[in-house]
Amino acid sequence: MKLCIAEKPSVARDIAKVLGANMPKQGYFEGNGFWVTWTFGHLCTLKEPHDYSPHFKSWDLIFLPIIPQNFGIKLIPNAGVEKQFKTIEKLVDECAEVINCGDAGQEGELIQRWVLQKAKCKKPMKRLWISSLTEDAIREGFANLKPAENYQNLYLAGNARAIGDWLLGINATRLFTRKFGGNKGVLSIGRVQTPTLAMIVQRQKEIDAFNTEEYWELKTKYRDVLFTAAIDRLKTKEKAEKGLSYLKQYEFEIIAFEIKEGKEKNPRLFDLTALQVEANRKYGYSAENTLKYIQSLYEKKHTTYPRVDTTYLSENLHPKIEGILRSMNFYAQFTAPLLSQPIPKSKVVFDDAKVTDHHAIIPTEIPPSSSLSIEEKLIYDLVAKRFIAVFYPECKISNTLVEGQVGTIPFKASGKQILEPGWREVYASDKKSDSEKKDKDEEQTIPEFKSGEKGPHQPLIHQGKTSPPKPYTEATLLRAMETAGKQVDDEELREMMKNNGIGRPSTRANIIETLFKRKYIERKKKNILATTTGVALIDTINDELLKSPELTGEWEFKLRKIERGEYEANQFKDELVTMVTELTRKVINEKAKIITFKDESKPTDKEKTIRKATTIVWENETCPKCSGEKLMKGKTAVGCSNFKGCGFKLPFIIFGKKLTEKQLHDVIMKGKSSKLKGFSEHPDQVTEGVLRLSEFFLAELTAE
C-alpha cells in the first residue's frame, strides 16, 4: 500500500476522493492501493528546555544560555494528536511507500518531515507538489510526483528557522524577563517580533518628537488654472503678504507648456503580503483574517495556494489562462474583451525565473458559490479583478506641465488626464479610497497655453501646517516588514527586496497578532501604536542585533539561501549560538531596571459571574456514531462504552483548550458548541470559533 499524508482532514478527503480511497477507517481512508491519512497541522514541536534537563524548568540566569547539543522533537501533548500519531506510525510501519502531501511550502515540509522523523520512517518517500486543490490539479500532481530529496533543502531551511527562533526566543525571553521584568510578567523577545516592534516604536517616537509648523504658499489663478509658486515655503505671514502685494503689480506670463503622453503599468498579481495590504486598505481586514479567508478559498478550490511571495506565474500556466477566464462567468463583462483575442504572454506576468515554489495567487477554474461568507466573496473579488486586470492593455495618460512667471517669481501647474483607461476599466465601478479621491480632486483639466502669452490673474495666500509621519496601519506595517523597514513604493524594487524582508508572508500576520496579545501594541481605529510596555522593552534592548530590521532581513536572506542549497543550515545555527551567548553575557552585566507593564483591564464585581456546575449523566446518552451503545466518561475523554468496536471518543482537551462537560456535551449531542475562545494549538492558528462534530466523528474548529 502507498501511504499519503495530508496536512488536515479536509485535504485528505479531497485527495482520497481523487485516488479512489473511498473507505473511511479510524484516522485514515483506504482503497485502490492507497491509505490516505492526515495531521492537524503541527503534531510535533521542538522539545522544551526542561525536556533536556529538569533544572531548566528554572528561569534563573545562571542556566543561560540554554543550547542543546542536539535539538529533539516531541509530540504536542494532546490526546487527539497522540491518537492520530499512533495511526500514522502504524501505517508508516506497514506501507510500502510514503507520499508527502503536506502543504507545498517550507512550513508544510517541516510539519510532515518532523512527523515522519518521529515515526522513524525508513520507507521510500515521494512528494506531491501542487498549487491548487482542484481534482485536475491533484490528478496532475500524482502523475508527476517528485523525489522527496528534491525538497531536502526546503526542510533544512524550515528546521533552521525553527531552531533559530527557539534559540533566540527561549534564551532572550528568559534573559530579559529575569533581568528587567521585576517578577511582574514575561518579556517576550523574538527573532522577527522584536524588530517589528522596534519599527513601530521608532515611528511613534518620530511622531511624538515632531513639531508642527505653520507655513504659507503663494498661489494664483490664471485662465481657471491654479498655479503654485515654485519657491520654498514661507515661514511667516508677513513675508507671504509682501509676496502677495508684489504679485498684484505684474501680469501672469506663460514661460513653457508641455504635454507628455505616458502609460500607467498594470498592477501586479497578488502575493500574500500584497493581498493582505489591499484587504486592509480597502476593507480594514487584519492580516490574520485575510490569511484565514484566502486559506478557506484555497481549501474550497476557488483560488490557488496562498502563502506565496511572488507576483509572477510559471510560463507553463499560459495555456490554462483562457480556461480560467472562461469559467469566471460573474466577470464576463471584463473577460469578454480578453477572450476575443489571444492571451498575451508578457514577461511582466509569466517568468519562470521569478517563480520558486509557487506562483502568484490567482482564481482556479472552479467559480465560487453563493454560500461563501461576505468576507470570502470580497477577498475573491480582489483576486479575480487583479487576475483579469493584468491581461488588459496599459492605461494611457496625458501629463501636462505648465510653467509661468509673475515678475521674478516662478509658478508651476500640472494636470493628468486618462486618454485610454486600459486596465482601469476593471476597477471603474469600485468605490474610491480617500487617498484616491484626494488625488482626483488635485488633478486639473488644463487648457492649451502658448509660451509668451500674458494676462491678468488672481493671486492668493494658502496657509498650511507641516504634518508628522503617519502611524503604521496593518497595511503599511506589512509593507515595512517586507522591505526591512525601508520606504519602497516601486513594485519592481520591492520585488527585488523580498529576500531581505523580515518574516515570511505566511508568518507576518501571526507576528503582528502576537504583539497585540503581548500588549506591546494596540489599535486606535486603523492605526497601530506601541504601548508603554512596548516602548519600554525596546528602550531596554541595547543590542541592535535584536531589534534591527536590516539585520533580521539578513538572517531571512540566509534562510532563503539554505533553501537554494547555497548556505549551510549548521552555519546559520552556529551564528545564532554565538550571538545568543554574547547577548547573554552582555545583558547579565547590564544595570537592572524594571519595565512597567501595561495594565490589563480588570472586571468589575458586576461583570464577574458565577457559573453553575452542570451535572451530566453520560451513561444516559447514546453514542452518536454507532447509535447502539451508551456513552461513558473516562479520565481524559468521553467515548462509546463499546470503544473497541465503535472507536468513538472525544477528549476533554481539544486544540489546546480544556472543555467543560457542558461544552463537550453540546458538541457530541448537538453537533456543535457555542462560540468558544482560548484555543492555542489549532494548525491554522485559530483561537476562537465553533467546534463541530465532523462526518468522521472528529472535532473540527471553525472560526466564526
What does this protein look like?
The chain has 23 helices and 27 strands. The protein has 704 residues and is of the alpha+beta class. The strands form 7 sheets. It has a 7-stranded mixed sheet, with helices on both faces. Strand 2 (23-25) and strand 3 form a beta hairpin. Helix 6 (152-180) packs antiparallel against helix 20 (549-563), helix 10 (287-299) packs across helix 17 and helix 15 crosses helix 17. The model is unreliable at 600-614 (pLDDT under 50).
Uncertain runs are 600-614
Helix amount, in percent? 25-40%
Main β sheet profile: 7 strands, mixed
Query: In what range is the share of β-strand residues?
Result: 15-25%
Q: What is the CA-atom radius of gyration, in angstroms?
A: 30 Å
Could you give the count of β-strands? 27
Mean pLDDT: 88
Distance between the termini: 39 Å
Reading side by side through the largest sheet, how are the strands ordered? 2-3-4-1-7-8-9
Q: Determine the number of helices (DSSP H or I, runs of at least 4 residues).
A: 23
